[in-house]
Design a protein that fits this description.
8-stranded mixed beta sheet, about 425 residues, 10 helices, single chain, binds flavin-adenine dinucleotide, 9-stranded mixed beta sheet, alpha/beta
């Protein structure tokens, strides 16, 4: 029997977001021989750093291997949270209360920073604060969530509301969760329009953005950095590597520290307003309480549901991934079982061995990366911190620059173990659901 066609006639293997803001070609001529700062990559990290350096009078080159915004910054889900794979309680137990507090304060500062920047630059990118619903995948997860959120409310003042299982449909047209929690102050954004606005602002401030300009080598030469590109060489006083999940192997010290993995998303076809209101009545972003999350949100620019999951898995191709994501969403939101998909896409994320983002400088190269699926706020925030550090400002200090950036013996940047690690996280979550420990 042939499987039903789950793809619309205008189906495309590209991000939903690119309908309004596709990656852009910028300068493609000769590179200048020198610059104050050369930045590898053109995502949020690169552009926020570039904008603030240019505003301080530095000559800045952004060097992008593909089109501007080719990376995760125009492919992500647009969740604006204060998210870390390490809980506050875990950090407190292992690193002390002061460290845990500093981390979670900065995560929230990052979230707020995006709102500030968007307002200041006047970027029209559907930024909003719809709040987030976290679906508990078991009773044990519900109790754990309640405990963790209560600790953060008491210590940090972060608000939340628990949603009992019988009230689940107030948040989601689903029976898949054992209740959950609402975090009312978390945000959402159209990630590609946000990126487009940053690109425009950076270029207006004088940043020169070169696309189709892969950086092929970075070498320290006295106090300067020699940047080799496919279009010739540039000498820079400072260089930033802002490549997160796309970090090239030749930047070996960083490639040994980030774990690239693929994130997948899909968009439904256009739905009726009534169905949209039924599916996610309060219009929140939705995730679940597992480590390997499924995530669902209403599109901010049309009546479609956007969702993702299967992170780090290895589909045959994007249509195969569409089939898997369709099966997943049909189980979570049964009203979508007969609905077709209009887009399926993927992007590269970066994990780290300690589950923390990192900012710093090694062998003359500045870097900020390893956002573990939270790079909309963290890339924007650490981009600012990079600029402040290069300008010698004290505000550039960050808790994410205070711990060693770990690697493992024999790891050279080949993330062969990611699918296995995801299965291990799934197993741990299933065991936690059964045993509660
Ligand atoms: C499917 C998906 C969903 C996600 N959802 C969320 C979310 O909801 N919320 C959230 O906070 N985060 C999310 N993320 C993560 C977030 O998108 C990233 O962490 C963030 O965009 C990273 O930004 P960046 O500027 O550091 O890097 P990127 O935007 O990835 O840019 C890196 C750039 O470096 C370029 N590059 C690489 N090598 C070279 C070279 N040699 N020369 C020149 N250029 C080079 C690449 O082409 C790329 O354009 C998601 C990611 C994915 C993939």
């Amino acid at each position: 029997m042939t499987p039903p066609n789950i793809f619309t006639s205008d189906f495309a293997e590209r991000p939903h977001w690119w309908d309004l803001a596709a990656p852009e070609a910028c300068e493609q001529g000769d590179l200048p021989p020198s610059a104050d700062v050369a930045i590898v990559g053109s995502g949020y990290t690169a552009l926020v750093a570039a904008l603030h350096l240019a505003r301080a009078g530095r000559s800045v080159l952004v060097l992008e291997a593909e089109l501007a915004g080719h990376g995760a910054s125009r492919r992500n889900a647009g969740y604006l949270g204060r998210t870390l794979k390490r809980s506050f309680t875990w950090l407190e137990e292992h690193h002390g209360a002061e460290f845990a507090t500093r981390v979670y304060r900065e995560l929230d500062a990052a979230r707020q920073w995006v709102f500030t920047l968007v307002a200041e630059l006047g970027i029209q990118c559907h930024i909003a604060q719809p709040g987030r619903f976290i679906g508990a995948t078991s009773e044990a997860h519900y109790n754990d969530l309640a405990q963790e959120l209560e600790v953060m409310r008491r210590r940090l003042g972060y608000p939340y509301e628990m949603i009992a299982p019988m009230d689940l449909r107030r948040e989601l047209a689903s029976d898949a969760y054992k209740g959950g929690a609402v975090i009312p102050d978390l945000g959402a954004i159209h990630p590609a329009l946000y990126h487009q606005g940053l690109l425009k602002a950076a270029r207006k401030a004088g940043v020169r953005v070169f696309t189709h300009t892969p950086v092929t080598g970075l070498a320290r030469d006295g106090k300067e950095i020699k940047v080799a590109t496919a279009r010739g060489a540039v000498t820079a006083r400072e260089a930033i590597v802002a490549t997160n999940g796309y970090t090239p192997r030749h930047v070996s010290w960083l490639a040994r520290r980030v774990i690239p993995f693929e994130g997948f998303m899909a968009a439904t076809e256009e739905l009726s307003p009534a169905l949209m209101a039924k599916l996610i009545p309060n219009g929140r972003t939705v995730i679940d309480s597992n480590v390997n999350i499924n995530f669902i949100r209403p599109a901010p620019d049309c009546a479609k549901i956007l969702f993702g999951g299967q992170t780090g898995s290895k589909p045959r191709d994007l249509r195969d991934m569409g089939q898997r994501l369709h099966a997943m969403i049909s189980e979570l939101l049964p009203d979508l079982a007969g609905v077709r998909l209009s887009r399926v896409w993927k992007g590269q994320c970066a994990g780290t061995f300690d589950f923390m983002p990192h900012i710093g400088r090694h062998d003359g190269l500045w870097y900020a990366m390893g956002y573990n699926f939270a790079g909309v706020p963290m890339g924007s925030y650490l981009g600012l911190k990079l600029a402040q550090r290069i300008l010698g400002k004290d505000e550039g200090a960050s808790v994410f620059g205070t711990t060693p950036f770990p690697t493992l013996p024999f790891y050279g940047g080949n993330p062969w173990f990611v699918p296995l690690a995801m299965r291990w996280f799934d197993w741990k979550d299933a065991r936690f659901a059964r045993k509660g420990t």
